[in-house]
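This follows on from our talk about sequence and fold. I would like you to pick a protein and set down its sequence and fold. Go ahead and set the record down below:
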Amino acid sequence: MPMSQIAQYFPITDPTLIFFVVMIIILSAPIIMGKLRIPHIIGMVLAGVLVGKYGLNILVRDDSFELFGKVGLYYIMFLASLEMNMDGIRKDGQRFLTFGLLTFAAPFVLTYFMSSELLGYSQQASLLLGCIMASNTLIAYPIVSRYGLQRKKSVSLSVGSSMISLLLALVTLAALVASHRESTGFWFWVWFAAKFLIYIGAMVLIIPRLTRWFLRRYSDAVMQFIFVMSMLFMSAALSEAVGLEGIFGAFVAGLILNRYIPHVSPLMNRIEFIGNALFIPYFLIGVGMLINVRLLFAGTGIIWVVLAITFFGTLGKAIAAYLSARLFRLPLSSGNMMFGLTSAHAAGSIAMIMVGMKIETAPGQMLVNDEMLNAVVIMILFTCIISTMMTESAAQQIIMRDKDMPQDDVQADDERILIPMKYPEYANRLLNLALMMRNPKLGREIVGLNVVYDDDDMRINQERGQRLLESVSKYAAAADVRMQTQVRVAANIANGIKHAFKEFHASEIIIGMHMHKEVSQKFWGAFHQSLFNGLNNQIIMARIKQPLTTIRHIHVVVPSRAQFEPGFYRWLERLDRLAGNMECRMMFHGRPDTLSLVNKYTVEHHPDVKAEYTSMDHWSELPKLAANINEDNMFVVVAARKGTVSYKNAIEYLPEELTTHFSGTNLMIIFPDQHGNAMDEMTFAQPQHTEDRSAYESIGKWINRMKKSGKNRADGSDAQ
């Protein structure tokens, strides 16, 4: 079909088709952006650019984008204030206030003068850009959670200051908006201040009382959600009625309702789910549809604007962070953390620029032009990258600085091993491994799990699973070990295992490695990768090709800085107990500082274990180890998840290394306990989908493969 005939069907104007296309974008954008390592919030905006009139012109920006966009705009500000830690802020109010004022004032002043002097923008436009750069979004906070640094002073100061700077930015923005609605004389500002105070007082008096009364009286989940939404939009509507912008009202509503909606409550989960699944992505796509990408190629003007805004705004955040760290007598690494957390701009910036687009400075002339809109969106991408990199580096610096190593607590009474099993020929080997690793003094039962797909063969597979678990239970009973079993039906195997893990309050998982190529050609199989990315608890993946009692040596590769991971002593305890029960020798390979702690623990708690220690400076030495491993040996790799202090890029290529050099070896891969939430959740600030290998790495691997094949062909032709 000719392109002219295809073009006649676009842009799509039918509301049903528009909604369908938007749903497809919301579904696919996180997956694609995960591969490209682009923040989720930017990914949605870029998707909007692609389908909008300035891109491929696939969709018309109809009334649904106006409706859902406004709801999404309020939702962003509402969630931002709901996620604030109010208790932490109250404890050290003076420091929070100092850092908050600095992190607002420094970028505000620098951006204002840069915009007016260097860019030649009007006073109002410069004020708007100052507000945008003075606020920030805690886009890198999940990194802090992964490292377990939430209680560090620099982190709590950053969270508190973010709230203060955002509040001040919104108040300034409200004043800017109000100044365009009426004459701005002395009495206007007096009346504006009076209306502002009346509004704040009314909200503080009305919303808490209404909330307490309603939540005590009604427990229905739907009614509670609708009530919260009613309070949100009431606050937004009243703020507009008194001359403020609706996003300010949404933010205030979140601050007031903060204490009544715990972060881990079902109500909070419903609020986040609805917003992140529909309203916020819809809003972000709508923002992207307004962006004219053609301006990027019209000249160097917009590039200059982007660089100027990003540089001066980020410089202001850096001055505030390091000056505050100096005033509070905090080390440089804390200053790095404060700068990293407060330097990103995302949700608040988009909300403010959208408000600015509605301000008319002259008939037919808007405050925000296409150049400013494009510049702010690109600035968001740059600052998110800067923030993420800086926070990651600072987190590792703080861990190394404070030497926050896990406590040696072998008596921790949390042991409950979960064994997902499917293949009868392998189930007993996994159980044997668990029996040799468990602590018999605790007398804890082992949990056997069989997960079957919810498909046409479900009943048959359930019966097979039940027979398998009964057989394994008898095997465990012979060893005088109790076993709890469950056959679970799930649409997704990984999710079935993760939910069972939480239900049984398991401490760790022992699972067989993927060895069935007819199921999946990938090294990790169909769901293993999703499992260790979705759970932060210890996961042991084993490929045992012979009875454990016939294994003579265990080689263990330990990454540098493994001693700083919270699960360090758990996996070491399991391996020591395994070696002791098997009466075989263990050889640890790693850095001297890590090996010294391994040696100390083994000598103190398992003196009968025969252990040797060999220095290994880099993971590139793995192929050398392969030559020393025999058929009756076991090779153990202590791996690390991305975003942990012991993770290194070499682990990225672990599947290739193991496939090439250890294909016939008894193998075990351990992912230790780490800090953070048990399950990854998508928010407006972070992606849901995290790929093990990015698109850039895949392209690099393909290029290297092409180079090697070209070299081989050249060598072959030379030989001829």
